[in-house]
Amino acid sequence: MSAHLWDHDHPYYWQEGCFYSDECHHRHQSWQEFSAGWRDADEDYNCVYRWDWNVCEGTHTLEIRMVAQRKAFPISHTIAVTPEDESAVRAYLTEKWAHVSRIWAPFAEPPDPAAAEAAVKAWRAARIAKLRGELAELEAQP
Known about the structure:
Blueprint: E1 25-28, H1 31-38, E2 47-56, E3 59-68, E4 73-81, H2 86-104, H3 113-140
Parallel strand pairs: 1-4
Antiparallel strand pairs: 2-3, 3-4
Helix pairs in contact: 2-3
């Protein structure tokens, strides 16, 4: 496994959006913005099948590809991310890999459930700590 998600280089590339429609590509200003609208999207309706973390001149972006399976409709997302978002992104992608591995069973072994749960718990703990820090800053304001 790569040390960081941005260290992994997928073979070939995947074009954003859809050749037949301009309505299926979404841009998000942050991981938090994407998460607010898509983190809990039903995996059976919005199946994530590819991700690419890109770094260009110090700017990090995450590309997520999913398909709305009932409509065979491709959806792509470009998300502005930071290295600090990696644990949250890794937890999200671990959940999506578990789902895809169930689709591809018996060819792919799903991730160790304990490791997947640990990744999600680590992300939640980091998020709670960040929110507590933000709350403390707000409470300290006059």
